[in-house]
Amino acid sequence: MYDFDYQRPSSMPEVKKALATSTDAMPLAGGQTLIPTLKQRLRKPAVLVDLQGLRGFNEVQSVGDKIVIGAMATHATVAASPILRKRLPALAALAGGIGDPHVRNRGTIGGSIANADPAADYPAAVVALNADVVTDRRTVTGDAFFKGLFETSLEQGELITSVHVKLPEKAAYAKFPNPASRFALVGVFVAKFKDGVRVAVTGAGPTVFRVKTMEEALAKSFAAAALDGIAVPASGLNSDLHAAADYRAHLIGVMAKRAVAACS
Amino acid sequence: MPTVSLTVNGKAANATVEGRTLLVQVLRETLKLTGTHVGCDTSQCGACVVHVDGKPVKSCTVLALQADGCAVTSIEGLSQGADLHPMQQAFRDCHGLQCGFCTPGMIMTAVDIAKRHPEADEATIRRELEGNLCRCTGYANIVKAVQTGAAAMRQG
User: Fold this and answer.
1) Strands A184-193 and A170-177, how do they pair?
2) Which of A54, A154, A229, A252 is the most buried (most CB within 10 A)?
3) Is A8 touching B (CB cutoff 8 A)?
């Protein structure tokens, strides 16, 4: 790992100031991706601005008809949240299936979605729930947030502060985990709202995407059988040593059916 | 260079570090607490697990400065003098190790499992051990050790 200047400011203005000191300044949330990335010398920040000194960004709260999750809430916090376990257990279960217990104690929802790993779990939930990603500058809808492989609509120095989730009538997440890393080989989040169904897929492509054909079929009949015969094309999907594109395409159908069957 | 202040196994410890210094490096190289092992150094194997403010983390994936001001418990902090912690004793009694390299991390994780799931069944233990790899045992005796240790912690 190349060395860097470490800073831990205790307020948002100080964080912004620290991030503005260098074009090579990077925010550090839980570090469960960033630190391994630094070890591999894939990044070389001059300044690392640790966000853990900020107070009030790590809670899960009910606000009106939404659930607000602070960007620094760890996966363990989200998994154990009584509010989510009662009102949106699919999201608590998703968080409880990320990595392993140690990673869940450090990794955060803000860090995960800002990183936009193609195999991360949270992007499927953010898109299927069309959650609002709130930053220090604006609000971005789930549909508009993810742009591509490790690419989001965040600008240089822009920080996610919270994720606002609208509650669906029913939701479930089903993933086929890579047996070593627990990342999603394919993960499908299905959310049924009063005005429609949303199906978001992670792990299969360069970034999370929706499957409109499945959404339309499920809007007519919300049952696993409604997905019979709907194939997702393999073109453009990821092929690597873990799975070929056509296998991932097949898994999308399998995981989508499991998610619908598990919807509560 | 920055300094980091920790409470390690109940004692205050200060070290001069670089930004990039990992928590495990301070434990092993500065404080000479070599019970915490570095196995994979890629956040997967769990040999480096210690507790930071009571929560198990992979100390190869935490910067020393991130832990500034925190209480750290390593494997050396579990026993009371010559008396092994009940979980250490259980690993010994159940032969929950062969080469022993993964054992410090296994035991630190096991103590946390027992705290959060005092009555953990086999499936829960196996799921909770997903972040700790053992390449010798096949896990059968490790799972037994965690169950035995958890039972001893309940009584203790």
Assistant:
1) antiparallel
2) A252
3) yes
Q: A177 contacts in B (CB within 8 Å)?
A: none
pLDDT at residue A242 greater than cutoff 70:
yes
Write the pLDDT tens digit of every residue in B41-97: 999 999 999 999 999 999 999 999 999 999 999 999 999 999 999 999 999 999 999
Structure confidence at residue B108 (pLDDT): 98
Closest CA to A197 of A263, A121, A120: A263
For the beta sheet containing A184-193, the strands, ordered from the edge strand earlier in sequence to the opposite edge, are: A170-177, A184-193, A196-202, A209-210
Which class does domain A60-262 fall in? alpha beta
Question: Is A264 a residue whose pLDDT tops 70?
Answer: no
Q: Is B100 an interface residue toward A (CB < 8 Å)?
A: no
Sequence spans of domains, chain A: 5-53, 60-262
A39 near B CB under 8 A: yes
The tokens describing A189, both together, are 């989040």
The length of chain B, given as a count of residues? 156
Q: What are phi and psi of A151, to 5 degrees?
A: -130, 130
Does the beta-carbon distance from B65 to A50 stay under 8 Å?
yes
Residue range A5-53, CATH number: 3.30.43.10
Nearest residue, CB atoms, B19 vs list A6, A106, A180: A6
Report how far residue B125's alpha carbon sits from residue B146's, in angstroms, rounded to the nearest whole number: 7
Chain B interface, best mutation among A102, A103, A117, A181, by max B CB count within 10 A = A102
3-state secondary structure B11-23: EEEEEECCCCCEH
**Which one of A100, A103, A178 would you mutate to disrupt binding with B, by most B Cβ within 10 Å of its Cβ?**
A100
Report the distance separating Cα B59 and Cα B48, nearest Å. 5
In this predicted structure, what is the pLDDT of residue A181?
86
pLDDT attached to residue B43: 93
Measured distance between the N- and C-terminal CA atoms of chain A, rounded to whole angstroms: 45
Closest CB from B43, B63, B66 relative to A103: B43
Instruction: Choose among A50, A102, A180: nearest Cβ to B58.
Output: A102
Structural domains of chain B sorted by starting position, each given as residue range(s) with its CATH number in brackets = 3-74 (3.10.20.30), 86-155 (1.10.150.120)
